[in-house]
Amino acid sequence: MHVLLVEDDPSVRGAVERALRGAGHKVELATTGDKALATATANPYDAIVLDRGLPGLDGLEVCRKLRSAGNAVPILISRSTSCSRASALSSGARPRPARPAGPCVSTISSSTATR
To answer: Which pTM does this prediction carry?
Structure first.
């Protein structure tokens, strides 16, 4: 599976990247919302793991822009509290479990299998 991982925190990004690669996924990285939008628009992905708090465009805005452009790739957004969960769902995302990376890998596999 080809996954775009969008995370600005190096330690979190490294942990999630290792977990995804360890599960056999091909991973590309972006560290800002602007880079995520450009990368996701230019390349086909099977899933996007998107941090909500990013420099530049935040994760929800990236999601909104992708959805408004017709991009239907499964998007999993981190940092989902009850309030942000509603925002993420209304932007077209599917919130992923809070860190650590382990649940993220299984969520990606299950969310893309059901689309």
So the answer is: 0.74
